[in-house]
From TrEMBL:
InterPro entries: aa-tRNA-synt_IIb, aa-tRNA-synth_II, aa-tRNA-synth_II/BPL/LPL, Anticodon-bd, Anticodon-bd_dom_sf, Pro-tRNA-ligase_IIa, Pro-tRNA-ligase_IIa_arc-type, Pro-tRNA_ligase_II_C. GO terms for cellular component: aminoacyl-tRNA synthetase multienzyme complex; cytoplasm. Catalyzes the attachment of proline to tRNA(Pro) in a two-step reaction: proline is first activated by ATP to form Pro-AMP and then transferred to the acceptor end of tRNA(Pro). This is Proline--tRNA ligase. It catalyses: tRNA(Pro) + L-proline + ATP = L-prolyl-tRNA(Pro) + AMP + diphosphate. Homodimer. It is found in: Cytoplasm. One of its GO terms (biological process) is prolyl-tRNA aminoacylation. Residues 32-281 form the Aminoacyl-transfer RNA synthetases class-II family profile domain. It comes from the Bacteria. Its EC number is 6.1.1.15. Belongs to the class-II aminoacyl-tRNA synthetase family. ProS type 3 subfamily.
């Protein structure tokens, strides 16, 4: 296997690219910065999407769809927003072979166009809260693209809500942050995340507060996996999103937005992958158990099919590989690369003594198992290994995170991992200094680990790191 992938310790970025290519997860698109997500990668994204969609709906939001093309004047109405996105915009100036009367922007995010329709649909306090989500593609012209992490076009969900009060908007932004994003990342994707508040320098353009989920990757760098924003009344005033209050007055709504994207696939790879390939947590895996016929023999195909059916009946997502015309070793390497949580190898030699071999992807262990016990063994391995992957990622984060007292120490620590430092020792000037050396304040947390309301709270802790 060492020859299939560049070892992580030797060249982590090259290992990442190797894995994506060899596991057939994605490929570079024909336009610089775009990507083609292959079936193996898209199957994982579909699982992420389904799990996220269920959590978003449980929080009361409904799915809708808004146009890909946005009039340029929409973005210009919220000055901070357009300033923040201007370098990344793709603008269409011609259509149907003729210059357009007004250029249109290919959506980088949809606060503006959704704000326009919120203003149209909201009239009374009875129309609030309005809780919307859309699954879509967006375009942000990346200068340094990397598949799944930063591409000029990517897939995501973006939620947009309007509320009667600031308190309601804040509560909902945080509900999504914890009940949808943090829950999915920790309990399904198996990445322990630090949840905190972005600094003013790092928050979303046009927001009054940005909350984030930050995960540590296998090389000690940080990856922003999802954000939830309080937008105050900035977009409501720009797009005249108003409502008649119970008292009869006309009030501006308070809005939020929040999003996660195919970047989570990059996080999955870098947080859990090893030198043999991807390792997919069982709750997320499109294929949880992969049954492989080692070679033909009397009763082998029948035994493998029976195991497949038994696992399927037990609620396991299962696939059967009966391609005995392809060398078993090659198929096993491919299964390792794809990160199937459990393999069940069925061959004439084991079957002759009533066994099959259960292989766990987390540690590569192989256990000869009576055929009658395979379903129970697989179920036990899936339950155990979900926690194993989370715990290994947590151990990596804890071993690479240090407590320091000064900005200088924090910047030094960020060479190999994360630093926790008093925010008072960093401040706005120190943050700019760190940025100049490729280090960012990933988020601010309270001493007890909870999420602050403002960066002006006393005794906050700043998490500093290099990031993707």
């Amino acid at each position: 296997m060492a020859r299939v992938l560049t070892p992580r310790a030797e060249d982590f970025p090259r290992w990442y690219q190797d894995l994506i290519a060899k596991a057939k997860l994605a490929d570079n698109g024909p336009v610089r910065g775009t990507m083609v997500i292959r079936p193996a990668g898209y199957a994982i994204w579909e699982r992420m999407q389904a799990e996220m969609d269920a959590r978003i709906k449980a929080a009361g939001a409904e799915n809708a769809y808004f146009p890909l093309f946005i009039p340029e004047n929409y973005l210009k109405r919220e000055a901070e927003h357009v300033e923040g996105f201007s370098p990344e915009l793709a603008v269409v100036t011609h259509g149907g072979g003729k210059p357009l009367a007004e250029p249109v922007v290919v959506r980088p995010t949809s606060e503006t166009v959704i704000g326009e329709f919120m203003a149209k649909w909201i009239d009374s306090y009875r129309d609030l809260p309005l809780l919307l989500n859309q699954w879509a593609n967006v375009v942000r012209w990346e200068l340094r693209p990397r598949i799944f992490l930063r591409t000029s076009e990517f897939l995501w969900q973006e939620g947009h809500t309007a509320h009667a009060t600031r308190e309601d908007a804040r509560a909902y932004a945080r509900r999504i942050l914890h009940e949808a994003y943090e829950d999915l990342m920790v309990n399904v994707i198996g990445i322990p995340v630090v949840v905190g508040l972005k600094t003013a320098r790092e928050r979303f353009a046009g927001a009054t507060a940005t909350y984030t989920c930050e995960g540590m990757m296998g090389d000690g760098k940080a990856l922003q996996l999802g954000t939830s924003h309080e937008l105050g009344q900035n977009f409501a005033k720009a797009f005249d999103i108003t409502y008649s209050s119970k008292e009869g007055g006309r009030e501006h709504a308070w809005t939020t937005s929040w999003g996660t994207s195919t970047r989570m696939l990059g996080g999955l790879i870098m947080a859990h992958g090893d030198d043999n390939g991807l390792r997919v947590p069982p709750k997320l895996a499109p294929i949880q158990a992969y049954i492989m016929i080692v070679k033909d023999g009397e009763g082998v195909a029948e035994a493998a099919a029976k195991l497949r059916d038994g696992l399927r009946d037990a609620g396991v997502r299962v696939a059967l590989d009966d391609r005995t015309d392809t060398a078993f070793g090659r198929r096993a390497v491919d299964a390792e690369l794809r990160g199937y949580p459990v393999r069940v190898e069925v061959g004439p030699r084991d079957l002759a003594v009533g066994n099959a071999t259960v292989v766990r992807r987390t540690d590569g262990s192989k256990s000869p198992t009576p055929v009658a016990d395979v379903v129970a063994a697989v179920l036990a391995a899936l339950e155990t290994d979900q926690q194993v992957l989370h715990d290994q990622a947590l151990a990596n984060r804890e071993s690479r995170t240090v407590e320091v007292a000064t900005l200088t120490e924090a910047i030094e620590a960020a060479a190999t991992g994360w630093a926790r430092v008093p925010w008072s020792a960093v401040g706005v000037a120190g943050e700019a200094e760190a940025n100049g050396q490729g280090v960012t304040v990933r988020c601010l947390v309270r001493a007890d680990g909870s999420v602050p309301d403002s960066e002006d709270e006393p005794d906050l802790v700043a998490i500093l790191a290099r990031a993707y």
